[in-house]
Amino acid sequence: MEIANRIVAAGLEGERVRAEVVEGGEVLEVADLLVSLSNLDTPELNGTRVIREPADPAAALDAAREIFRSRGHPFFGIEIEVGRYPVVEAAVKTAGLRRIDTSQTLAAPISGLPAELVPVGAEIIEVREDRDLEAVRAVEVAAFETPAEIAEGFVGRRMLEDERVQMFTAWIDGEPVGEASAYLLNDTVGIFGVGVVESARRRGIGAALTLRAARAFDDRTDLAWLSPSDMAQRMYERLGFQPVSDWEVWAAKR
Fold first, then answer.
1. Is the pLDDT of residue 55 over 90?
2. Residue pair 151/194 in contact by the 8 Å Cβ criterion
């Protein structure tokens, strides 16, 4: 439970960081909920989380939803840890939202992770300059099928300037083939956006990027965590990550 509590706190901080590194992003607290908006035209980069149990969950959801409406977003979503706030889960269902995604959060003590092994012929570099951002965007589009305009808006100069964020790219034969981001979240490192283009998969590049990101902040962190896709979960478990908590995303049209 201690690890789960740390991840809840770190996850809230991660939502703040994700919005603050985007030009035009904003973070608002309303009725014990955190609304983090990139204000980009994609639901995945605009969300709501529970800070603490609201006194009136239905009213809290209405207030958060109104913020989305006021920004012109044709969607509303909230991510909830299963079982932590039963009254919020009940209110979400009563409000007519539908569950659109489920995931597990995995965590590992950084000291217990294996040594990084970069595949032969590959190189991992830290993203430091404006020109490096194009490589991140290219992988984002190729690996995740993110629309180019969303990648352009999300992966910007603020990520280079924010000391809480480090990005890494993997290269083969002078071409970017992978990406990963590390967020310094309290005394943990959250690992996000680990992606490898299809032609370079199953070579260990995703694992190498993950291990580089896990150690991005040296001795300032002792716990690494991530929320992988079902396809990638076994790879992370082989590295030593273990399931900690289950999450659900509930959403509704405006």
1. yes
2. no
